[in-house]
Amino acid sequence: MIHELKIKQQYADRIFDGVKNFEIRKNDRDYQVGDIIIFKVLDNRYVYEYINSSHPLTDTGWKIIYIHTGLGMKDDYVVLGIKRMEIVTNLCKGSDEDDNSPTNV
């Protein structure tokens, strides 16, 4: 499953820098290992209402590789261990034989 999650820029910066490889969230989405997170970074210049599309973390994919619940966690909250993944685009595009558009090589 793919989860689009908003994130404050101060936390997005630490994930992008490689300092933070986890995210703490309320488990209101039934997160599972193997799920994908697509971050939407909130712009600090506005009261966290607007997506900062120029932040390098925005629209990047992160795979959930570990989920911690229970010990030390508030009820209904989880720690998600995350790892950056490469997103392959155009998965639904047909084969080259079906594409009649010109191509530049």
Keywords summarizing the entry:
105 residues, mainly beta, 1 helix, disordered C terminus
Annotate the secondary structure layout:
Blueprint (H helix, E strand, L loop, with lengths): L1 E7 H9 L4 E5 L9 E7 L18 E8 L8 E9 L20
Parallel strand pairs: 1-3
Antiparallel strand pairs: 2-5, 3-4, 4-5
Major pleated sheet = 5 strands, mixed
Q: Give the SSE order as H and E letters.
A: EHEEEE
Instruction: Report the portion of residues in β strands.
Output: 25-35%
Taking Cα atoms only, what radius of gyration do you get, to the nearest Å?
17 Å
Tally of helical runs: 1
How many distinct beta strands? Answer: 5
Protein structure class: mainly beta
- Average pLDDT works out at 79
Task: List segments where confidence is low: pLDDT < 50 over at least 5 consecutive residues.
Answer: 88-105
What portion of residues is helical?
under 10%
Shape from CA axes? globular
Strand order of the largest sheet: 1-3-4-5-2
Terminus-to-terminus distance: 36 Å
Q: What is the gist of this entry?
A:
The chain has 105 residues and is mainly β. The protein contains 1 helix and 5 strands. It has one helix at residues 9-17, and strands at 2-8, 22-26, 36-42, 61-68, 77-85.
Describe this structure in words.
By secondary structure, the protein is mainly β. The chain is built from one helix and five strands. The protein has one helix at about 10-15; strands at about 1-10, 20-25, 35-40, 60-70, 75-85. Mean pLDDT is about 80; it is low at about 90-105.
